[in-house]
Amino acid sequence: MLQEDAQLVHQALQGDHLSFSQLVARYERSVYAVCLQHLQNHASAEDARQDAFLAAYKHLASLKQPRAFCAWIHTIARRTALKHLRQQSRRDRQHQRHARSHSNTHQSTDPHEDRADHLIYVIKQLPKRQQLVVQLHYFDQQPVQTIAANLGCSVGTITKQLSRARVKLRHLINQEAQS
Predict the structure, then answer these.
(1) Start-end of H helices in 59-127
(2) pLDDT one-digit tens code per residue, 29-88
(3) Is 57 helix (H, G, I), strand (E, B) or coil?
């Protein structure tokens, strides 16, 4: 997949919009997950995801290593989400009374949305490296070999990180269930 990312980046830089669309399709779920981790709101995360891909498209020529597109887009997503969070915080301070009366009014009626939010919350408690590996493997459905190549480490290291992440997630979920 590394060569494919690099090839798609090169084609996009030559004006092939379909190539960039393929990159978006490949990474949209994990970029959304990164944004949701920071923003804790589906609509805000969706906005940040779109802004992250727009920023990536505008600055694609600045990507020095096209093979590193995966890590690069996740960095942009994190920064975009944090920017949205700062903007939201500013708006909240400016409209504090109004924001207080309307905060936390959204209650999901979809149990799957609540479970997804809870899972993102639990994943966020993992160490950063494990969060990334979990996102790439489960949200982007990338094979362990591809993750290892993207992150520059061995397949065994990624397998061990996934194993430790699953154990920690199980522990955190069981701990919450007991409280």
Answers:
(1) 69-94, 96-102, 111-123
(2) 999 989 988 888 888 999 999 999 999 999 999 999 999 999 999 999 999 998 988 887
(3) helix
The verdict on domain 110-179 having CATH code 1.10.10.10 is yes
CA neighbor of 162 nearest in space, from 131, 141, 121? 131
- C-alpha 15/C-alpha 26 separation (Å) is 19
Torsion of Cα atoms, 101 then 104 then 105 then 106, to 10°: 150
Write down the CATH number for the domain with range 1-106.
Answer: 1.10.1740.10
3-state secondary structure the chain: CHHHHHHHHHHHHCCCHHHHHHHHHHHHHHHHHHHHHHHCCHHHHHHHHHHHHHHHHHCHHHCCCHHHHHHHHHHHHHHHHHHHHHHHHHHHHHCHHHHHHHCCCCCCCCHHHHHHHHHHHHHCCCCHHHHHHHHHHHHCCCCHHHHHHHHCCCHHHHHHHHHHHHHHHHHHHHHHHHC
